[in-house]
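User: Before I run my own analysis I want an independent prediction to cross-check against. Here's the chain; please return only the structure tokens and, at the end, one sentence I can use as a sanity check.
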Amino acid sequence: MELRDIITMLRAHWVGIAVLAVLGALVAGAASLSSVPEYRTFNTVLVAVQAGETISDLNQGSSFVSREVKTYAEVARSPIVLEPVVQKLGLRTSARGLRGDVTTTVKGETKLIDITVTRPDAREAAAIADAVAAELATAVELLSPDRVDGSPSVLVSSIAPAAVPREPFSPNIPRDVALGTVLGLVLGLGWAALRTTLDTKVRAEPDVRAITDAPVLGLVSYDSGATGKAPHYVPERLSVRAEEYRQIRTNLQFVDAASRPRSIVVTSSRGGEGKSVTALNLAMALADTGVSVCLVDADLRRPSVADYLGLEGAAGLTTVLIRRAVLDDVLQPVGSGGLDVLTSGRTPPNPSELLGSRAMADVVAELESRYDVVLLDCAPLLPVTDATILSKTADGILLVAGGGIVTKDELTEATGKLATVGATVLGVVLNRVERKSGSRTYGYHPHSVDLEPESVPPRRPGHRESERETEALPRDTEGDGTEDGRPAPSAARSPAPGRPAPAAPRPSRHRKRHRPRALREAVRRTADGTGLDRFVPDEA
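Assistant: Structure tokens:
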């Protein structure tokens, strides 16, 4: 794991790490406050040999003590020493129980032994330490070899009797809280590392870059507050996500400056990653710059564009492919800019065959001749082959990766499928990225506004256009400046007093007038569903 990965992990999981550190401190503090105070004291003894008759005797005795001093330290915690201590002091414990309160330590290479005792009572701790030192001296006299005169060769004497401690050794609240905090941090870091290692989801831009060499064209933030609202781009709103789609639009225009792609398939690895919403938003962002755009709902299995925009979805792409209508009959304009939408039409039983037919290639070629950009929203890559088939017809693929939805293995498999068929991946859009507070704001807007687009309800059968919808989607003109007897939108909407009239949007070079009567006739011709099941497309 590189330093960048560690920083990413800490930024992603710092809340959990901090929570565990605080919990560690709280648990340690609570345990410290509820524990019984204990006092610690020690007695230092010296192990030495009696004076010898010669220097050689002294050297031999000193070497013997150096070898045996650790043994004597263990003897101090044995029943031969502790049993007499329990009896003399009348302790309410056994030698085995007292052993847990007594520790011995040899000071380096010296012959000094520290006998440390920890007890709830300070005076009792000092008395036990002194008693253990005295009983150790007696035990060593019995265990050490005798001299010629019968006296013991090794003597143990106390050089620092135990003092009665004034302050308890434990609990030490500051120390315990610090240790608990450190332990909580260690546990938090371990938890974060384990979660990062086991997390198989694509969540950030480095995850995408580790899988594919295709450029990341942009990140679209996730906003839980947008639930239930129309998830499409509104050019006049100063929303964060609208600006994110403008950034994707800009980056897409510079992906291949030498040969600008005219037809682009927008797809994803699996369902639910937001490919249709991304295609719709990107189409509106492109149309906002004045270019002519056609959005084609080529997801013939689960079409959604018509529902998002409230358009007629019963006649569309499949109607053209089975030759029940021509493009001009089923193209539907959106707004007053340069965006036209070709909905999916009725769901066919053979979507892959239709998308791979020569008729589909002719439709794409015709749309490329009419529009500056053609976006084709297609079914996901892994469940079906529609997108890989359509990639042979289009100029490139725009792959949408849903943050926290698609796994790294799924994205790897999807890019592998595209590489197998030789598809050109123009870039990746990382959707539903967790937005960091204050990370994408700028100080040019003096006041706060509702940045979410308003809801656009889907059109239901029998729905009649309102006056507002009539303005957005013009009908056939009868030649007198009116649309079905109503005033034209330009005449109906006058500028506010004191404000200049807004500039009219630049019309598309190839955009034709919407023909609702022809659309209704196309819907009628496919109402019974005949033709879809009998149509055998020509191979492209």
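Sanity check: The chain has three domains: 3-35+171-198, 39-160, 205-436+465-476+504-525.
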